[in-house]
Amino acid sequence: NNNNNTPLMVHNRKFEITQLCRLFLGRAGERAYAISAPLYIYSILWAYTTVFGKAMSHSLPVPGIGDSYLIYVGVFSCIVVPLSFLEMPEQVSVQVTLSVCRFVMVFIMVLTPALVGLSSHHSASHGHYSFGGQTTPNGTPLWDTTGIPHMLPVVVFSVILHHTIPTLALEVGDKSNLHNVFGVTLAICIASYTIIGLVGSWFFGADVEQSANLNWSDFRYECPSNDEYCAVAWGHWIAPIISFFTVIFPALDVISAFPLNAIVLSSNLRTIFHGSILLSDTKITSTEKRFFKFASSVPPIIGAVFVRDLGTITDFSGLIGFAIGFVFPSLLYVFSERTMVGILGMRNVQTHYQRWGSNWGMATLVGTFGVGAIVYTCGPYIKALQ
């Protein structure tokens, strides 16, 4: 009964992307997404676990133990697994607080290397900041295509949020404003990662750590040779605070991110298990909810015990991310519009979320890019196997 002049808007009914794939892409599309999404989210949770274990073992090593990574993975599991059993609204205050800290983190990772690299006072007679004695930028090539196959999956890994949209959108009061909420969020993420990447590669060059924040572990203030009061100077005591916060915060941040993604994964697993587009949470028992939350939160922690190389994890997850972020949304756009026209006879249907890119041409371009990126990124790995 919709008037074509009235934009459609999602209300209080949550459709998981798995359900949308079944509606518009059929069984084959549903199965493809049902395989891709859990694998991707599992790899995200896996990466979070390794980030925590590496950051904490690097900053606060356990005395008498050479490698305390496994101990911190155990500590991490004791924190995030119980949090994964909470519902989304119960985590709002924690998420808001950590969001403020994320902005502080971005400013630190951009400003400190820029100030050190651009400062002209690096002599022994002047107090100055340094990264383990490094005070000048290592520099980086302006253009080098050899690393693109490794870079693309990491880029996708850092900004993909498509799989979380149904769960997060459900908690938004004014759903007509969802396009602004997610659009601004994505723009901030892209801008932050881009600036951090440019400044970090310029200053650290080839010495950038896989977890870039670990480069701040040696951030310190170099006292002037003739300053006997350096120990009480503000620069001397603020440097360790900056160093500690930058190294530790990502570990604390993933404590908040892990439960959110585990909740999304458990919701996806429930939908896949029941295989019904009509399933609602009211039909699911509390025992069943706990089972799927356990199945979402524990396996990636076990995986992190055996594989801790963050680069390997992000390479794998980024490949799946191309499908989730580019291929499936494009297919859903094309086939959902075709369904509206072919079955319901509704042409030129508008929604509150349409923008300049909401058309067949852009959907085709985005989907083609996703497929091409998967093939291009897989190229070096296929050659290595041969």
Notes on the protein architecture:
This protein is mainly alpha-helical and 386 residues long. It has one domain (17-385): Amino acid/polyamine transporter I, CATH 1.20.1740. Helix content is 65%, strand content 2%. It is built from ten helices and two strands. α1 runs antiparallel to α7 (234-274) and α3 runs parallel beside α6 (178-204). The protein is globular and about 85 Å long. It starts with 16 loop residues before the first helix and ends with a helix. 28% of the residues are buried. The model has no long low-confidence stretch (mean pLDDT 80).
Brief characterization of the structure:
This is Amino acid transporter transmembrane domain-containing protein. By secondary structure, the protein is mainly α. About 65% of the residues lie in helices and about 0% in strands.
